[in-house]
Write a structure and sequence with these properties.
Helix content: 40-55%
Distance between the termini: 44 Å
Radius of gyration: 14 Å
Oligomer: single chain
Structural class: mainly alpha
Number of strands: 2
Largest sheet: 2 strands, antiparallel
Length: 111
C-alpha cells in the first residue's frame, strides 16, 4: 500500500512538472493543455521521466494515443523548444528508428 502511494505521488509530481514546464498549453496546437501524455506509452515501458512527457489538449492527446502524431514528432518538438537535456536524448534514441539524424530532421521540420 505504501509503495502504491509513492508511485501515485511520483506520477502526480510528473504531471505537475509537465504543467509548469509547458506553461499550461498544448505543445502541439497551442490550446489549453488538459492531458499530460507519456510519449513512450507506459504499456511499452515508458516512465514518468521528464523526457517522456508532454502536455496536450484532449484532441491532440487522442491523436497521439492513436499514433496520428508520432513519438519522434513530440520529442523533436521538445528538443526544438530546448527542454530536452543532452543526456535525455540518449534515453530517447533507442525508440527513434532513424536515430539522431531522424530526430534532428524532424526537429528542423517542426513548427
Amino acid at each position: 500500500r505504501q509503495r502504491q502511494m509513492c508511485i501515485r505521488d511520483s506520477h502526480q509530481e510528473w504531471k505537475q512538472y509537465l504543467w509548469i514546464r509547458d506553461s499550461g498549453y498544448c505543445q502541439w496546437c497551442g490550446a489549453q493543455g488538459t492531458d499530460p501524455h507519456h510519449i513512450l506509452f507506459r504499456s511499452l515501458g515508458g516512465k514518468d521521466d521528464p523526457w517522456n512527457g508532454i502536455l496536450l489538449c484532449r484532441q491532440c492527446h487522442d491523436l497521439a494515443q492513436g499514433n496520428k502524431i508520432a513519438r519522434v514528432q513530440l520529442w523533436a518538438l521538445l528538443w526544438k523548444r530546448g527542454v530536452l537535456r543532452e543526456e535525455w536524448v540518449t534515453e530517447i534514441l533507442p525508440y527513434v528508428d532513424g536515430g539522431l539524424p531522424e530526430l534532428q530532421q524532424v526537429a528542423f521540420m517542426c513548427r
